[in-house]
Amino acid sequence: MPEICRFYGIIIAIFYSEHNPPHFHARYADRKASIGIRDLAVIEGSLPPRAMGLVMEWAAIHKDELMNAWQQAENNQPPGKIVPLP
């Protein structure tokens, strides 16, 4: 699972050869969530409210980069890194 970003203890990753819809995975402590890139809806799992808010803020800023990373991983290429929240 390639890590594409890390901030405030949150790890963002995209798996190679994943199923649709385009999504990313967020981990914080022992909690995990899968989040759709197009609509930023939670597909599965949950994070604490503060962590989820940070993830959503970050994802809204980097939506185009997330979609590009998804396409790279879907083609079994490294998805690259995306800058974290400041």
Question: Would you kindly provide a written description of the structure presented here, covering whatever features stand out?
Answer:
By secondary structure, the protein is of the alpha+beta class. It has one domain (3-74). The protein has two helices and five strands. It has helices at residues 49-61, 63-74; strands at residues 3-7, 10-13, 23-28, 31-36, 42-45. A five-stranded antiparallel beta sheet has the order 1-2-3-4-5. The model has no long low-confidence stretch (mean pLDDT 96).
Number of H/I helices: 2
Spatial strand arrangement across the major sheet: 1-2-3-4-5
Number of strands: 5
Q: How many angstroms does the end-to-end distance come to?
A: 24 Å
Radius of gyration: 11 Å
The secondary-structure element order is: EEEEEHH
Major β-sheet profile? 5 strands, antiparallel
Mean pLDDT: 96
Low-confidence stretches: none
- Form type: globular
Strand content: 25-35%
